[in-house]
Write a structure and sequence with these properties.
The protein is an alpha/beta fold and 452 residues long. 35% of the residues lie in helices and 19% in strands. The protein folds into two domains: 3-228, Rossmann fold (3-Layer(aba) Sandwich), CATH 3.40.50; 283-437, Trna Endonuclease, Chain: A, domain 1. Strands 2-1-3-7-13-12-11-9 form an eight-stranded mixed sheet. α7 (291-304) crosses α10. Keywords: Coiled coil.
Amino acid sequence: MRILSISFPLPNVAIDNYNPLTAPNYNDYDALIIDPAGIDRVVREVIEEGKEFEAFDGRPVLNVPGSATVAGIAEQLRRRLEETRRLLEAGGLVVVLARPDAFQAGVVGFEGCDRYHWLPAPGGMSWSTPWLRAGEGKTVRIADEHHPMSAVLREFRSEVGWRAWFDERQAEFRRHGRPIALGGSGVPIAADFEVLGGRVVFIPAMSEAYGTPRTNLAQALVDACRQMAGVDTGAEAPYWVRSVAVPGLEQVEAELEEAAAAEAAARERLAAVRERHDALARHRGLLWKDGPGYGEAARAALQALGFAVVSRPGEPLAVQSEDVLAFVELESASGQVVEWPYIRLQRRIEAELLAGRPAPRGLIIANGYRDREPEQRSGELSEPLVRACENYRYALVTARTLFELVRRALGGADEAALLGMRRRLLNGAGLLEAPKLLGLEDEEAPETGPIF
């Protein structure tokens, strides 16, 4: 079994040690062990300290766009997502030392660089808040005695200093995560996830011990990885074993190769179908989710209509169509939606004006009484919210209305129809209903923009 360790030096003949800038392809290995903190550490060493690194192909790594003679930091980091995806799709294993997510500024060509940009997550989750939270502690209680990593955590309990924990109250974690060890108050600090046909295992951060303890830790991790991969941890069979005849074995080996090829093809098709399924099913979240899930569904809905999302991750949502910029505010509530999204939108637009920039258009997507069936949401928007949007000429749509537009788009609406929907959203004022946005009602001449 071939194991690659990134930014977590482990002395063992079965392990190749590199950092994210110098490593070969992740998917050239059976398992990957990685400390995400090594990503921002090595980036800082290049940008702030001028430290020199050499990519696996021999090119120097610099904070510039990549070329035939220079490997850019952004180029080296971005490629790791596809490599990890392929490793998992092949049934591989990724072991992660749990750290809180953090952004690394200053990478040319990669503004959204964070510690987990390279790691796919189960559907509906990400490796950041609210699912993975920052925290510190030393308490380790084994929750799954049968998991191979439990032996590692038990033996090296004194080396553990966990720096992140999973929120077991999140439905997605309960659906996808299998706790291995718990910290104080029973919060999961180690967990196992199935992702894209492979396994992603988070374990607590370990101290930087050297010498014999580090060698023993490396061997324990190798043994655990082999057990999780179903590989015998004992010595490999000698070279002459394959020459010993066993009646019927040669035919079965041929059948095994054929079945393995069929399984790989089926797994690839399953991953493609699951990706299409998740992309379509995400639109249902527009009707009932809140928080990041609602934001993700709203972004997907606007993109389905042809809008370009121009805001970066973590920033308030902004979209664009035909060079027209619009600020978008989202609100999903179990009760009636009141004026807060309008207030946030107005402050954002006023800030643009104070900065001397043109005022963008305003769009509010509101989802009131989100726990009710869509047909039973009468009065989901407060009257002051509706009146404020009319007065300031902000477009206001319910999540139900936007969902109807998305259904029309997914049902085969052509580009001319989508362009009409986008224009009506950008030029509308006050509460907009589906018939008007679909062009089924006479359109009124647009008035002037927002008043202040």
